[in-house]
Design goal:
The chain is of the alpha+beta class. It is built from 14 helices and five strands. The protein is 61% helix and 7% strand. Helix 12 packs across helix 13. The relative contact order is 0.07.
Length: 352
């Protein structure tokens, strides 16, 4: 064994190179440099540290210094060339290993979030990345004005904050389709809450959605899809809350499950508003503001920058056209559900 417990075969031919350099002053040939690079690659693949390998080369140079060498610079030049080529091969192998690891991680993440792999095999692969999919997991997704990838400073900053607070703790942080994604154990709510806080700040006020905890490998997919649906809701319904939880919005998947029934409700209830001067959109905006502020006319008028009298006129016009009175508790539910459906279906901008 060489110094620092490095096997001798990683230093094969090294002493002979130094002796040749001392005798002739020549530089290492291309073949000799290629040989050093190949040894560096094998040492990297074997898991030895570069510092220990370089130390072993320097120790061997001292131990096998060519006898009678009159020009130390020749020997040191050969040492420099040999170590540099060895380190180049080592780093090349390291980069290749990193690329392979990144490709494997990306493939795993794609399979995990889309459920495209056998669940048993997926659970086995997950252990390599610190997840135990037999347990419950929840997924949080954050999006901002820009798209992010794993090398983006925003993604790195959130990851550093998360790891600094929680360590690894069965957390998977990644990006997908330009969004930040965090997969965490379902019983550790504090992890996703902290992620939401960090992601909201890092994305300059973007939206963060948190899916419900779900069991098993397929549960990650389900929680992820819930979070994506919640982000879509936030955009369509113009929610102001920066952090939204799927568990608090379960009524919306119910409303959208039967698209045709929802379209029929919108068409039947709100279709007559199209006969109004200016079309249906201003009156739908009036109902939206009225319902969003708890049916308080003064607050709705303020949000719409109208007088209370103008708002009251609009509500009366809606009553005349649709036959439904927004101020009446019986009619209000139908109108509010239809308004939500119109916003989800982007009507009247899109035909039903």
């Amino acid at each position: 064994m060489a110094d620092h417990d490095i096997p001798d075969h990683y230093l094969d031919g090294y002493a002979a190179l130094l002796a040749a350099a001392a005798a002739t002053g020549r530089r290492l040939t291309r073949a000799e440099l290629d040989g050093r690079r190949a040894l560096g690659e094998r040492a990297a693949d074997a898991g030895f540290g570069l510092r220990a390998l370089v130390a072993a080369h320097l120790a061997r140079a001292r131990a096998d210094w060519p006898a009678g060498a009159l020009a130390p610079d020749r020997v040191m030049a050969a040492v420099e060339q040999a170590v540099d080529a060895f380190a180049e091969g080592y780093e090349r192998a390291q980069r290749q290993a990193v690329r392979q690891e990144e490709a494997a991680r990306r493939e795993f993440i794609d399979d995990l979030l889309h459920g495209r792999s056998d669940m048993g095999q997926l659970a086995q692969r997950a252990e390599r990345f610190g997840l135990r999919l037999a347990h419950e997991h929840a997924v949080a997704v954050a999006e901002g004005e820009a798209a992010y990838d794993e090398g983006d400073p925003v993604a790195r900053g959130v990851e550093q904050a998360m790891l600094g607070r929680f360590g690894h703790r069965d957390i998977l942080l990644t990006t997908k389709d330009g969004r930040l994604v965090c997969v965490a154990p379902g019983d550790q709510e504090e992890i996703l809450s902290f992620f939401a806080k960090q992601a909201y700040a890092a994305t300059d006020g973007g939206h963060v959605a948190i899916g419900r905890p779900q069991p098993g490998p397929g549960g990650v997919v389900q929680s992820y899809e819930e979070a994506l649906f919640t982000l879509e809701l936030a955009q369509r319904l113009e929610f102001d809350e920066p952090v939204l939880r799927s568990a608090d919005l379960l009524v919306y998947p119910v409303l959208t499950r039967d698209r045709q029934a929802m379209a029929d409700l919108v068409r039947t209830t709100l279709g007559p508003l199209q006969r109004a001067r200016g079309g249906a959109q201003p009156l739908i905006d009036t109902l939206t503001a009225y319902f969003d502020c708890g049916c308080v006319a003064a607050e709705a008028a303020r949000r719409l920058r109208l007088s209370v009298r103008a708002l009251t006129y609009r509500l009366a016009r809606i009553h005349t056209l649709t036959g439904a009175d927004a101020t009446d508790p019986v009619s209000r539910y139908t109108l509010q559900t239809a308004v939500i459906g119109a916003r989800l279906l982007d009507w009247p901008n899109r035909p039903l």
